[in-house]
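ingest -> fold -> write
write: protein_1
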Amino acid sequence: MKRILVACGNGVATSTVVATKVRKYLKEKGVQAETTQTRLIEVPGKVKNYDLLITTGQFEGQTGDIPIVRGMSLLTGIGADKTLEEVYEILK
């Protein structure tokens, strides 16, 4: 089971949209994943327990060796397919 941390400004609205799209896409690809939503400010203290960080806002903090995917395209729809493929390639 892959673990994904999805972060946005308040850890509620946009991260929920992104997490739902990512889980659905990965399920279709046969990848079991769970998502947790959080606020961007909380990422440094939480990210070490995850396989991937997806952000919908500007994040300049440290994640160690945890890869980061910029997820704004999953909200706008522009480039969403490319972003989802990037997530899949990291987690497969």
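write: protein_2
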Amino acid sequence: MGNPTHTEVSVARQSPQRPDADEPALGDTDGPTGPDVEPGPADRSLWDELSIDPVEIALPAGTGFTLRAYRAARELTPTDVAERDEDDPFLARRQVAETEDDEEVVILDEEFAALSAEDETEADADRKGGSDGKRAGGTGTTDTDTPDADADADADADADADEDAADDDEDADGDEEVPVFLTHKGRLLLFKTPESLVSFIRSGAPNDLSQLDGWNELSERVEPADIAPRDEDTYELDLVVENLRGGHDTWDPTLLIEAGEVARDLSYALRLPAVLDMLSAGSSLDDLDEALRASVNGGVGGFLGRRRLKKIGAQTASLGWRTIVGKISAVVDWRD
């Protein structure tokens, strides 16, 4: 994957005065020639002021730059996916194909679901500890009271309370910060160079980030040197499947945790419900994420997290992530 763009700082080294012409020339001596100067950090003032960040994402097809911001959900108009879905009516059930050992392996959502169910069944069996799992249940009769005015009043009160709770939940959802990327009509715009990204920003071309208050100021001030994503905004989705295939002992927690974070953000911003479901709470890939996060901690928590990882099927994890990367790749609009 390409590294984020940084400005290299070179420092000229002064040769010492040489009274004797027979002394070795610069570069012929093993002695020190002066300290190297590390390049300074990129200027973040523009991004911090506008609360927008450059992001670098590596996919199997290549590496590209884009932008991401977080805003209250009520302030955003979601990307319009109507045209995207018309172009590909089977997008939600796209098959992800990959050539492996000169054979084409077709990955389907149903195959991942079947493997996940198999893993869950095995986990349930482990939790039962070999017991037969049978539980005795009692039966009985329940008297049904005759409805009266008090019951109706209680029902109305409960309905009103549920409605108020729903309104409160809606207000809370509206205040929640959600991700928005440089997208247009349901597709993620990825640029292969900082220059092409800056050219697009300045062009005034339609995109979903233009609804942000600071977009016009960004288009006037941004320069190619500003497109320098931080390490935490650089994601290597192209390495995830291969890492998972290597087996539990080779799994890279940082790589996989960061991949999960950006995949959730992208699936929300691009309106990919199938990917959101695969990463939702309680799913096998969410269990993987939680175990990875626990494993990097010290003490008992880290030990238990590593034990949980050993029980997660490597085949299921790699299969699920191959599907996720394929679905995200399918909605990328590459720009040179």
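write: annotation protein_2
Strands lie at 52-59, 62-72, 96-100, 103-107, 177-181, 183-184, 187-191, 234-236, 332-335.
Residues 1-29, 92-108, 133-144 have pLDDT under 50 and may be disordered.
pipeline exit 0
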